[in-house]
Design goal:
By secondary structure, the chain is of the alpha+beta class. It contains 21 helices and 21 strands. β14 and β15 form a beta hairpin. The protein binds adenosine monophosphate.
């Protein structure tokens, strides 16, 4: 009963409100909670345990704990990253445990989880380390360390990070080290994703679960939601909403087989729009300040000065949030050019102007979520569209609302689809005219129609060096989908080829810092890189843990704009497996 006894070792910290004592929560208390959660698979039971834990905690601790519970260090909207590579952790663990890096990697190969390796090896660390005399780690201490790691950038930061992590992990007990490493590598396996944590917050602070879910969807910060639920209850939660400068999780689209299905899903009549082949960009404006965020919520403002300028010329609102697609065009003809150009622009950190002259980009706003102090997410899509057209008044093609038609006839949809493909776009999006905007939800309020069988966004979990001419390059990649039920990566096959030498070099450079173990030419890789792959068919297969295998997979592109959270789930693979039989019918009819 680790949970009940935790109050006994709490230390008074400060008297923030007269008569109320706040306690600093020790990290070991949170470790007991994590351990207890891992012992149960029932969501109900997990929520009940978390609810009990939150009841006695301070507001500050609650905010950190709830964010940690969802496997994150910082809120979802927060662009900070601690920037700690697997290799750095291997060195740190080697350092403290007195082992060589090779021995740490050997152990990692055995355990498959760097946290378990840390726990095992640090269990044997020299007892007389300085750390033995240090205070127990509190949750707030740990969070401060993470904040400092995120703030370390530039020259010499790798060494500084290594030193700080060494100090942190030598202070930690072995089980604490397991969880610190799990959080740092975003690999916390306790089954308390947002849903469970939301239910726990609702129970703990006696507020409706729906209100918690909605507040989280809009504020994009589960820690803040928990704090508000405790301090302000239901009225506070209801007041939480989207705000400029705090990126929102984008609403996602399901796939449909063709025009008829799209119209069926939407009740016979819908908005259809060109599906542009670019990168999703969220524009935030607050007074004169304009920021651009990627779908991974990175700040891209510096990389896209041309888009920022076009927005400031075309947008008529004091504050707003726009959901958009950004495309790259040929600077002479103005025609759309391949997505790879978009990625080059987004990644560029230096000599940005030069590249923006060579590869101009244009913005296609397709939704408006906030305008002049008001959240619009609850308004029907048609109303938002009308407001979008009033707010974005194009001076030229650099920033102009997406091409849009309201249609109810499959043949008209098929004609629009063909027109879109002929112009070099990806297909069409269909949108429910009456639907609200649901951040982060992949539902049927908006669906996509593409020409080919869906490509898949999968994560690289292992890779292999090539031989001969390609001996120094990583040329083959093991791909996985997210198994959300078991919270693990489920391999679906290997892919090699289909990429240019330049892309191979690029992938090799991206993968190298993520390598956590090597055996022969094979390397284990932290699951970070997303590849979009095409394939001929999804098959059922006993050879892979996922139960699926891709026939003839080939890489379409490196999806720098997507992160592991955007990768396909096994559930979706299953849906696509079934959908492919329907897709044998002619496209878009
Ligand atoms: P996918 O990335 O294949 O899941 O397709 C959905 C993506 O299409 C969205 O995340 C947007 O980035 C992109 N997109 C392109 N054009 C539009 C549009 N007119 N409306 C909505 N999304 C669009």
């Amino acid at each position: 009963m680790a949970i009940r006894s935790r109050l006994s070792h709490r230390t008074p910290l400060l008297l923030s409100t007269p008569g109320r004592i706040d306690y600093a929560m020790y990290f070991k208390e949170l470790v007991s909670l994590f351990d207890e959660l891992s012992a149960y698979s029932s969501r109900l039971k997990k929520a009940e345990i978390i609810a009990g834990f939150l009841t006695g905690a301070s507001e500050d601790d609650i905010e950190i704990v709830c964010t940690f519970l969802t496997g994150r260090i910082f809120p979802a909207w927060d662009t900070r990253d601690i920037g700690v590579a697997g290799k750095t952790l291997v060195k740190v663990i080697a350092n403290i445990s007195g082992k060589s890096s090779e021995e740490v990697v050997e152990s990692y190969r055995d355990t498959g989880h760097l946290g378990i390796t840390a726990e095992r090896l640090l269990g044997k660390k020299v007892a007389m380390s300085l750390a033995a005399f240090e205070e127990d780690l509190t949750v707030a201490d740990l969070y401060r360390h993470f904040e400092e790691l995120a703030a370390m950038t530039g020259k010499g930061s790798a060494q500084k990070k290594q030193r700080m992590l060494s100090r942190l992990l030598s202070r930690a007990a072995p089980r604490e080290a397991y969880y610190v490493v799990s959080l740092a590598t975003r690999n916390l396996l306790i089954g308390s994703k947002e849903g469970v944590t939301e239910d726990a917050i609702a129970q703990s602070f006696s507020v409706p679960a729906d209100a918690v879910r909605r507040a989280w969807m809009l504020a994009n910060d589960i820690g803040l939601v928990a704090r508000i639920a405790k301090t302000e209850g239901l009225p506070g939660l209801q007041a939480l909403n989207i705000e400029p400068m705090r990126p929102v999780r984008p609403m996602l689209a399901q796939n449909v087989a063709g025009a008829t299905e799209a119209l069926d899903v939407m009740g016979g009549r819908a908005a259809f729009e060109t599906k542009y082949d670019g990168a999703r960009i969220q524009v935030h404006k607050a007074g004169p300040e304009i920021k651009l965020f990627s779908r991974k919520m990175e700040d891209l403002t510096e990389a896209l000065p041309d888009i920022r300028a076009a927005v400031s010329e075309s947008v008529h609102a004091d504050s707003l949030i726009l959901d958009c697609e950004a495309i790259a065009v040929d600077r002479h003809t103005g025609k759309v050019i391949p997505f790879q150009n978009v990625l080059n622009r987004i990644r560029r950190k230096y000599r940005v102007r030069e590249l923006s002259d060579q590869i101009p980009m244009q913005l296609r706003p397709f939704d408006i979520l906030y305008s002049d102090g008001e959240s619009l997410v609850d308004r029907p899509f048609v109303e938002r569209r009308a407001l979008l057209e009033k707010t974005v008044v194009p001076l030229d093609k650099r920033c102009t609302p997406s091409e849009f038609k309201i249609l109810d006839d499959p043949e008209a949809v098929a004609a629009f689809f063909k027109q879109s493909i002929d112009a070099g776009h990806e297909g069409l999006m269909a949108k429910d005219l009456n639907a609200d905007y649901s951040p982060g939800i992949r539902g049927r309020k908006m669906v996509k129609l593409k020409e080919t069988l869906e490509s898949l966004d999968l994560v690289v979990i292992a890779a292999e060096y090539g031989h001969g001419r390609k001996a120094g390059w990583i040329t083959s990649y093991e791909l996985a989908a997210r198994d959300e039920v078991n919270e693990q990566w489920a391999p679906v096959g290997r892919v090699s080829g289909g990429v240019s030498d330049e892309q191979l070099r690029e992938l090799t450079e991206q993968i190298k810092p993520l390598i956590v173990g090597e055996h022969g030419r094979m390397v284990d890789v932290e699951p970070q890189i997303v590849l979009e792959v095409k394939f001929n068919e999804i098959q059922k297969s006993p050879n892979y843990a996922s139960g699926f295998a891709l026939r003839f997979p080939r890489i379409v592109r490196i999806r720098d704009d997507k992160g592991p959270d955007d990768a396909e789930t096994l559930e979706r693979l299953d849906a696509l497996y079934r959908l492919q039989f329907k897709l044998k019918e002619p496209a878009a009819t």
